[in-house]
Amino acid sequence: xxxxxxxxxxxxxxxxxxxxxxxxxxxxxxxxxxxxxxxxxxxxxxxxxxxxxxxxxxxxxxxxxxxxxxxxxxxxxxxxxxxxxxxxxxxxxxxxxxxxxxxxxxxxxxxxxxxxxxxxxxxxxxxxxxxxxxxxxxxxxxxxxxxxxxxxxxxxxxxxxxxxxxxxxxxxxxxxxxxxxxxxxxxxxxxxxxxxxxxxxxxxxxxxxxxxxxxxxxxxxxxxxxxxxxxxxxxxxxxxxxxxxxxxxxxxxxxxxxxxxxxxxx
Length: 266
Known about the structure:
Elements: H1 2-22, H2 34-40, E1 53-56, H3 66-69, H4 72-78, H5 86-92, H6 97-108, H7 114-131, H8 139-148, E2 152-157, H9 161-171, E3 179-182, H10 183-186, H11 194-203, E4 210-214, H12 217-225, E5 229-233, H13 240-249, E6 252-254, H14 257-260
Parallel strand pairs: 1-2, 1-4, 2-3, 4-5, 5-6
Helix pairs in contact: 1-2, 4-7, 6-7, 7-9, 12-13
């Protein structure tokens, strides 16, 4: 009994810290009612009785690919004699490729077009998509079961869809998707709900029965604020505090897709 009480108190503390961390943030207001969501969250992936569609992020969600992007911009700019400050690199993590390119061009007065800068920066990353990057554990099995139940599946990514297509074709995941869409196509990064709204429109489903699965906290917050069902997925790049915030945000949290199928009706 004492152990259970201590566990519940830890969950309450996590939710309280998360609420304070978001206080004063105009984009994502503090959520003081998230304690109950944490207590009710489940690691079992919902089936057709609960959802009609799933919108998956790609990097860090379906693909184990975050390491391919680490320091990509800094590494390229270094070849041109430019050192990227760590705080700027951190900001780029929350931007689409086009947003990041425009940001760097303005900051360093670069002569490149955004398209040229993106192409040069992602060239070594693209090679890994085409040759080595693999799905996260259980991803293919999950997609197969969702597809078998008639649940629609789409990919909404901040990366380019041509890179996504290369990796998904090589790994056998492509046939499960209705379509893929990227942030460049809609003209906004994932701090805006535009990519989720456009994906929903194409899927023809409702927000109440459409699950958005993301590994990034800010993207998860965007989808939740827009009224979608949301699920966070763990990644090796998480630290303990970040994982606690992701758990406190979504309707579901999956330690892995493999684990999410245990006890599921999929």
